[in-house]
UniProtKB/TrEMBL annotation:
Pathway: Metabolic intermediate biosynthesis; chorismate biosynthesis; chorismate from D-erythrose 4-phosphate and phosphoenolpyruvate: step 7/7. Homotetramer. NCBIfam families: aroC (TIGR00033), PRK05382.1 (NF003793). It holds the Pfam family Chorismate_synt. PROSITE patterns: CHORISMATE_SYNTHASE_1, CHORISMATE_SYNTHASE_2, CHORISMATE_SYNTHASE_3. The lineage of its organism: Bacteria, Pseudomonadati, Pseudomonadota, Alphaproteobacteria, Sphingomonadales. This is Chorismate synthase. Coiled coil: none annotated. The keyword Signal does not apply. FMN binds at residues 130-132, 242-243, 286, 301-305, 327. It comes from Novosphingobium cyanobacteriorum. GO terms for molecular function: chorismate synthase activity. SUPFAM superfamilies: Chorismate synthase, AroC (SSF103263). Reduced FMN (FMNH(2)). Its cofactor is FMNH2.
């Protein structure tokens, strides 16, 4: 399988399977001298870790990261990056491969089972192998390294809708995001979602979600006008996350219903560059950051692993029905929040280094 690497100047390659002994990432292109330890990475993995509430998969994985290379403790006692490849490993400790016996014989509707078999003529059916959302833990670990490259940037993501029930932005409270199991900034919406997700879980079904992410502190100038547009790179990164079926930058599809004057981001003189009075473009114009907050919205489909029997076919092409045993997220978008933040960080770190290489700034 090719294309396991993402990025240009700042690159990472993920490896491992859902039910293998471990997963991990190798980060290449990280500048030397940046403080980095396992303690800097672990909090982000803890945010994504499964089994923390009844609203996520009950697979119990500590997701403890180990740095195998690329850092060295200097005379000041601080562990720093050396500029060499940073190898990260996360052991799998709670696999239940026996849950996937039926999946070996038939394809799960909505999953990559058939597409993988059609392409390779061979697949790892244990939890989906490389196509499992388990792989995203590696991205979160790599994203923590990327954050060390862009200390000037603050990244925050949250769930803005589950099952079509959206938050009220008038109730937005950033502090609330860490107080509930949904990464929800609206306490009233979070209370509604408890019943909504519980109902889906108990009925053996699942729900989709929308995750929003904002990066503040991104200076003007990152990106490129044509084939490395910042918004194109972000869309590429977000669409590469498991279960993502849609990405919007700024107003996204709503811009198509606007007018030219309504969609413009007017500027006034400011003390330190232009003062924008709107941000319909999501902080990106012509593929280059404007200095405004970079905003992305990501749509996650409902989890395809459900207990409801669905029509499908066997590997031999015979009609059958299949439901997916095991432990699965009733709403995969919930744990997608740390993954979206990680991919934002990875793209921005890459663009910062590309900008420095081209302009010397």
């Amino acid at each position: 399988m090719s294309f396991n690497t993402f990025g240009h100047a700042f690159r990472f390659t993920t490896w491992g399977e859902s039910h293998g002994p471990a997963i991990g990432a190798v980060v290449d292109g990280c500048p030397p001298g940046l403080p980095l330890s396992e303690a800097d990475i672990q909090p982000f993995l803890d945010a994504r870790r499964p089994g923390q509430s009844r609203f996520t998969t009950q697979r119990q994985e500590p997701d403890a990261v180990k740095i195998l290379s690329g850092v060295f403790e200097g005379q000041d006692g601080i562990q720093r990056t050396t500029g060499t490849p940073i190898s990260l490993m996360i052991e799998n400790v709670d696999q239940r491969s026996k849950d996937y016996g039926d999946v070996a014989k038939a394809y799960r509707p909505g999953h990559a089972d058939y597409a993988y078999d059609a392409k390779y003529g061979f697949r790892d059916y244990r939890g989906g192998g490389r196509s499992s959302a388990r792989e995203t833990a590696s991205r979160v670990a790599a994203g923590a390294v990327a954050r060390a490259v862009i200390p000037e940037v603050q990244i925050l993501a949250w769930v803005s809708a589950i099952g079509g029930d959206a938050i009220d932005m008038a109730n937005f409270d950033a502090a609330e995001i860490g107080r509930n199991p949904f990464f929800c900034p609206d306490a009233q919406a979070a209370a509604r979602w408890e019943a909504l997700v519980d109902q889906a879980r108990k009925s053996g079904s699942s729900l989709g979600a929308v995750v929003e992410c904002v990066a503040t502190g991104v200076p003007a100038g990152w990106g490129a006008p044509l084939y490395a547009k910042l918004d194109a790179e972000l869309a590429h990164a977000m669409m590469g996350i498991n279960a993502v079926k849609g990405v919007e930058i700024g107003d996204g599809f709503a811009a198509a219903a606007n007018t030219g004057e309504g969609n413009a981001d007017p500027m006034r003189p400011g003390n330190d560059g232009p003062l924008f009075t709107a941000n319909h473009a999501g902080g990106i114009a012509g593929g280059i950051s404007t200095g405004q907050p970079v905003t992305v919205r990501v749509a996650f489909k409902p989890t395809s692993s459900i207990l409801t029997p669905m029509p499908t076919i066997t590997r031999e092409g015979e009609a059958t029905e299949l439901f997916t045993k095991g432990r699965h997220d009733p709403c995969v978008g919930i744990r997608g929040v740390p993954v979206v933040e990680a991919m934002m960080a990875l793209v921005l770190a890459d663009q910062k280094l590309l900008h420095r290489a081209q302009t010397g700034r």
